[in-house]
Amino acid sequence: MDDKKRTKLLAGLLIGVVGLYWGRSIVDGFLFEPVRKAEQKLASAEKDFELQTDKSLALRAARNRLEEWRSMSLPEDTLVAQRLYREWIEDLAQQCAFSGLSVEPGTKSEQPGRFLEVAVDVKGETNLSGLTQFLFLFEKTGLVHRVSDLKVKSTGSQGDPRLEVSMTCQGMSVAGSGLRNEIFVRSELTSEINPTGTEISVVSAEGFPATAPFTVRLDRELVKVTAVDGNRWTLERGADGSKADTHTAGTTIELRPELYERKDSGLGEYAGLLAKSPFAAPVPPKKYSPRVAGLSKQTIQPGDEVKVTAKADDFNADLGEACFSLVNPPAGMTIDEKTGEILWKTEASLAAGDYKAGVVVTQTENPELRLEASLDVTVKLPNAAPVPKGASEAVVVLGQPFLMKMEATDDGPVENLTWSLGPGMPEGLKIDSKTGQLSWTPAVSFKPGEYVTEVKVTDSGAEAKSGSAKIKFQVRDDSASMTLLTGAVSKDGTRYAWFRNKGTGENQQLKLGERLKVDEIDAEIVRIENRFVELSDVGGLWKLELGANLRQRRNLQPPAEATPVSKPADPEPEVTPAEDHVPADPSKPAEISQPAADQDSTEGGSGAAG
Q1: Which of 245, 258, 180 is nearest to 218 (CA)?
Q2: d(CA 605, CA 211)
Q3: 291-329 tens-digit pLDDT
Q4: DSSP state at residue 494
Q5: Backbone phi, psi, residue 271, to 5°
């Protein structure tokens, strides 16, 4: 094909393509443009619809949320809202063991038509556990409120110190929440429930949820309602750290609504905080020094019961429980291997003496630990009362010292006895509480006569026993100072000593071996000479000069050395007594050897013959 033809053909094809494109544009603009515009309008309309739907859903959600807030808000009346909120906060603080509690109304703020906000100021003292429970229950309760201010001051740094708490709680009332006299729905129990009860009946269930579970408050106890059958509910006691208690008929039961997102929360979430209190100083690892305690020495009588408890002190409980056993116990003694209680019921025939048992303590998961201590038991016979011993009668002379030693027998050490005098003892009479020595020097103005006094002796036993004896005191005038040796005579080969009482005029003639008894003096005549006699008594050997009174006798030998003699060795020339002292005996005239010079000597004179 030549070039002209080829050129014409290409030009025709070009013209055809341009025409086809131009024609198609005309057809496309005429036929499809309205369709595209309609699609655009439809897309715009669908977008507007979606926006309106989202707005409607958001509006509905906002309305639902508003209704939820209204259901959880305080009453609309300002004064009622603040009063009810203050009472609720105070009940919650008391439930959480606050002491020294002060709950006072705080500030109020209001935006009419929108909301009302009231505040309550709280001051009190509790521990970390109480504060944690308060904040936990505060947060979990379905109320529109918050803690706007909280100050905590620790009073110590060891253990679980008391905390001084000061805080402000704010509650809100949303417009439209209505006027009511209670924050939460209330009813009353129709009958009493004890701490283990799980079912209750309420006067009215109106306003409470129709289905379980939900939480209510019985006084200070929180309970979980797990099933509802009209007015009869099944309970789970002691919820959220509260304690099950007895509640009588008529007790108020109050709904405790919970935030949905906090329904399943519990105090266990705060275990770490309670275990590692920020208010207490860190405690170093404990060092244990295990020991056996509680085994004090026992003293019993035959037939008594021994009951003591051995204790495992300062043991690491993580290594298991303590186990108790006995080693070589006396017959009949037992021990509880878990509690450590030792029991021994003795027989009445058990011999007195000291008994010992070994007490061994081990630990279930600590095989290396073995501690041993001993239980000592002393068995004593019943304490017998001491028996006093001594003269039952005694002569006491006015103005003269009187001494008498009391003794006693006892089943214990006699040196531990205590002596005393009974009531009504005569004035001036004393007894040494340790030695039992009686002493008395009655005044010369004391009235002579018979006086009976009780002498008491007491032992030092655990149950002290006492014994007593009565002593009859014959209180007399001092006749010994008035009784003089007036002469020595021989009658029918027998020598006599003459004694005369100047006060009574009484005369006595005594020979060797006979006894002279005047006041407390009771002496044997062991020697008679012309100018003196010798007397022997418990006080030893005495010499009494002619004309002297018995108080003027002189001790020759102490009692241990006194050797009474029965007859004089070398008789001296006889001494003639004064005429007024010669006994009147008409049948036998006396043989008078030598007269005495002055037989009316006074107490201080010698009365000796020249």
Answers
A1: 245
A2: 126
A3: 999 999 998 889 999 999 999 998 888 888 999 999 999
A4: E
A5: -60, -40
